[in-house]
Structures are given as structure tokens and as C-alpha cells.
Design a protein that fits this description.
Jelly Rolls, mainly beta, four-stranded antiparallel beta sheet
């Protein structure tokens, strides 16, 4: 689960490259009936590439709201990368076992042009 390799792949696929670093990361542990309301990772100073690493399988989906709603079913070792301005939430967790994820923000510093790979 090389998180930085996934961030790099995201930059390659979007053809926009940033020098940067993971500025924050945290574990989310959801017990039965826990949920997370819609939110974004916007900051008044910095911009981020955000991500979620799933450590457990679960029926409680992550829901992203853009033009339409997109859902991601948690699976062990799945990594989802997205821009900081995308609203997302976690639906109520109904499993007896905990839902565990690692979330992170990769801080965008200097931008540099596409690599023409």
C-alpha cells in the first residue's frame, strides 16, 4: 500500500504535477451506527490531494458528491484518491465489526508542467 505511488499515479492521470508532502493523516474507526456527514478538505491557505486507505471490508460505503453521487465499497487495501473540493461522507456503519480507514492530505506545493511521459 504505497500511498505516495498512488498519489503519483493520480498526478500522471490528471497530467498535473506537484511537489508536496503528506501534511496530515489520521485513522477513522467506525463502530456500529457511526457515520460521517458530508464534508470537504478545503483549507484557506493550502490545497490538497486527499485519500482514503481501507483496512477493513464493510457494507458502509463512502459516498462522493460531484455532479452525481458516486459510491465506493470498502475493501481491504483499496486506496481512493480525490481532490480536496469533493464533498464526501460515510454512510451509517451497520456491521458489528469496526470499519477502519486511514485518511490523508497530500499538500500541493510547487506545480510543475506535465512530464510528457
Amino acid at each position: 500500500m504505497n500511498v505516495l505511488a498512488h498519489v503519483q499515479k493520480y498526478m500522471i492521470e490528471s497530467d498535473t504535477f506537484y511537489e508536496g508532502f503528506i501534511s496530515s493523516s489520521w485513522f477513522n474507526i467506525y463502530h456500529k451506527e457511526f457515520f460521517q456527514e458530508y464534508h470537504m478538505h478545503l483549507d484557506p491557505i493550502s490545497r490538497y490531494i486527499c485519500g482514503i486507505v481501507y483496512f477493513t471490508d464493510s457494507r458502509s460505503i463512502t459516498q462522493f458528491h460531484m455532479h452525481n453521487s458516486i459510491t465506493v465499497k470498502p475493501e481491504v487495501a483499496k486506496i481512493v484518491i480525490f481532490p480536496d473540493n469533493i464533498e464526501h461522507r460515510v454512510n451509517a456503519h451497520n456491521d458489528e465489526e469496526e470499519r477502519i480507514t486511514l485518511a490523508f492530505n497530500y499538500r500541493k506545493c510547487n506545480i510543475w508542467k506535465g512530464m510528457n511521459i
